Amino acid sequence: MSTIVQEMGAMAASSVREILDSGQGSPAAPNPQLWSILSDGGWGSISSDLENGVELRDILEVARVSGRYPYSTPIVSTLLAGRWFELDDDQLESGIVPAVRRGAQVVAPYYSDGVAVVDGLGGIIAASPSAAEPFSLLSPLAVLPSSTTVLSEAHLGELRAAFLAVAVGCADAVIDASIAWSTTREQFGQPIKGFQAVRHHLANAHIAREQAWTAAIAAAHEPARSAAWARQGFALARTSIELGIQVHGGVGFTWEVGLHHYLNHIIELQSVLGDDQ
Predict the structure, then answer these.
(1) Among 62, 173, 182, 197, whose CB has the most other CB atoms within 10 angstroms?
(2) Do 85 and 199 fall within a single domain?
(3) Taking the model in full, what pTM does it have?
(4) Number of domains in the chain
(5) Is the pLDDT of residue 97 over 80?
(6) Among candidate residues 66, 57, 56, the one with its CA nearest the CA of residue 20
(7) What percent of the residues of the chain are helix, what percent strand, and what percent coil, each to the nearest 5?
(8) Residue 2 included in any domain
(9) Which UniProt keywords apply (predicted)?
């Protein structure tokens, strides 16, 4: 696998970022049309077209971009599924999501068309969101037979690398927000970016983020060691985000600022991988 992104990967990442950056919702109140926009543009199926020559490294580029916007869209897992399995266009357009298994319960975290679908003990639950409380109203709908595709170790290795790239994207967003905050927030009559303690936090957050990105590429390049690279990379991405939250002071932990969405997203990704210690 090449460590350099190809033209198609760079193009896909740029287009996906443009779509996600166009104000289509927010982490606290995701826009149900977001996945439709991505899938209608064909970006969820580029990995299944052999003529495109999309490699895992290209998917990592898209994954990193998607991490900047922790909306529940299945772009990353759909790209991987299209790479691994023979799926038709309808399946890819509907989106492919991994399940989180905890004992007898299975949860598929995905927000689609105003409905949050949760599969626990074979049950399907619909959420009727409001602007203030997106997941306030839950009602059971039906019971469906279980259907599971077990991933091979090779697939799991690629999933680790891609999800780690998403985590790096989360760190990207928090670092950008922290730099902007340190420029406008004043203390003792000057922006806090002038204080050495804040600069050190931002520098350390940047270093941890870059090391996490290196770990993501290494996980894709060395499948046999992907678990070790993922553990190291997730820890680094989480450190980067936590440093960014600290730069914001007390407001960094509040719902209004929203940085906790990125930290929670990393925890969710680790949970899917079964690595949430």
Answers:
(1) 62
(2) no
(3) 0.82
(4) 2
(5) no
(6) 66
(7) 60, 10, 30
(8) no
(9) FAD, Flavoprotein, Oxidoreductase
